[in-house]
Write a structure and sequence with these properties.
This protein is of the alpha+beta class and 177 residues long. 27% of the residues lie in helices and 25% in strands.
């Protein structure tokens, strides 16, 4: 599953979902198929490995050309190239990101894709005295084909996504992409 950004308001009653433990130590809602959860978790790792290593070509490959990235401090960034340029200018060599253990939640969205919710922590590798920042995020990953989204969770997990929405960080270090 590849991630991108979409302009949408997403409302969830997260507390109403029963939770199960995934093999990675992350919490998986019981309503989420294990293969979908693992696929989204793997894509999150791959995306932010590229982010942390400043592998901009790989980073950009996770997003559609018309990506919309929302940030609580930086506002709206439109387009894959602008998002990638922003990461190059503001992130590379300055900040790394890690997913907070146990915070990942993945919810299937029938005939669309999946919703990924979690908390990420940002570090300042060149200045360990800098405080660590944490923030909540939401990624809304869409399949490129409505037919693929309706086939099965596995097809949703392995199909290119069109978009996602992000909010970060909520407190601590100001990390702007």
């Amino acid at each position: 599953m590849r991630l991108g950004i979409v302009s949408a308001t997403v409302g969830l009653l997260v507390g109403s979902f029963a939770l199960g433990r995934a093999t990675s130590g992350q919490v998986r809602p019981e309503s989420t198929p294990a293969d979908l959860f693992r696929a989204v978790e793997e894509q999150d790792k791959a995306l932010f490995d590229a982010y942390n290593r400043c592998d901009l070509e790989r980073f950009a490959s996770f997003f559609s050309a018309d990506v919309e990235f929302y940030h609580d401090k930086g506002g709206l960034t439109l387009g894959r190239q602008k998002l990638t340029d922003s990461v190059k200018q503001n992130i590379c060599g300055r900040t790394t990101r890690e997913l907070v253990a146990g915070s990942l939640e993945v919810y299937p969205m029938d005939n669309y894709g999946a919703l990924e919710i979690g908390v990420h922590r940002f570090h300042q590798p060149k200045d360990p005295a800098q405080p660590v920042g944490e923030g909540q995020f939401v990624h809304c990953g869409a399949t490129t084909s409505p037919r693929a989204a309706s086939r099965s969770p596995a097809s949703t997990a392995s199909t290119t996504t069109r978009s996602a929405s992000v909010r970060s960080p909520a407190r601590g270090v100001d990390v702007r992409a």
